[in-house]
């Protein structure tokens, strides 16, 4: 099995590469990544010289490059992670989200079609379903698609293109949709690593709005197992939801982190809400349990403690990835108190 992974230098892609190389000795990987601010070679340093791993720097929107990589490496499967992934950035600069998440996916689909790829896994998100109220039932795969941010709209468009290629060209593709991931190697613009970093530095903790918005949190390794199960057993044209069974409000998440790190709640600062902020996400993943034999293994508190420990022990990694444009960006966007 020769797999093209796109976006393998990012948070989930790099965890997936570590996971699959350990899990399956028959697998060879080519990682195509454009090395945006979110792609960090340090994430895969320990496997750089593994003969079953190759890295290609490049843009998924470049058809000639993608086609060349598929042909020269005799790729049989594609797992597509590469994306612009941060909702806040999609609000301030939507264009790149359209380019990478829609045009990039279309380019990969065309190249997959031309090269008779055996399976194409589109890694998508619960955010395509929109937003739940506090007492709605969790999202199932049957929910209407109702994206509400430029990020989730671009992911929805990509998912629909994938399904159209299944229908029109019989492309053997399948879609995974997952809730918010936590774990090692997450870029510290997302809630958990951002808050851990700020707590360590005793900086203010910017909670959007009143902090009651709820996310379901899944350990990244549980997500990776779900993607692997989909790659091996997922049925063409199907969608599979994955979740962590851990709905937590943002304010409770921040208080949990403060307690674990032994710091006081006076660091919490309520700031201007994110425009169009989705209220709640929750996932019904009974289809994945039934059809793929998958279930999340991590208990939230255990996974979170392990994750906090990882960030504390990898301060160099955090300093390295946050040394670029990110801090300026962050200061401009979210430093205003309510
Ligand atoms: P990330 O932002 O950490 O990583 C994205 C990677 O894609 C980076 O390595 C980046 O360099 C690469 N990339 C971006 N544009 C590219 C381009 N044009 N060409 C080639 N490479 C490019 O993202 P993540 O959090 O690891 O998310 C991975 C996937 O999982 C995304 O598709 C995202 O929508 C989806 N997802 C994420 C979460 C989450 O909680 N993070 C939850 C559900 C689904
Ligand atoms: P985030 O990690 O950006 O993921 P997503 O928007 O894809 O769910 O945000 C998780 C939640 O935390 C979301 O409701 C927004 C909120 N949030 C804050 O309150 N403060 C912050 O500084 C960040 C980054 C997020």
From TrEMBL:
Lineage: Archaea, Promethearchaeati, Promethearchaeota, Promethearchaeia, Promethearchaeales
Keywords for the protein's UniProt record, in alphabetical order: Lyase, NAD
Cofactor(s) in the UniProt record: NAD(+)
GO molecular function, one term: GDP-mannose 4,6-dehydratase activity
NAD(P)-binding domain: residues covered: 4-307
Name of protein: GDP-mannose 4,6-dehydratase
Pfam families registered for this protein in UniProt: GDP_Man_Dehyd (PF16363)
EC number: 4.2.1.47
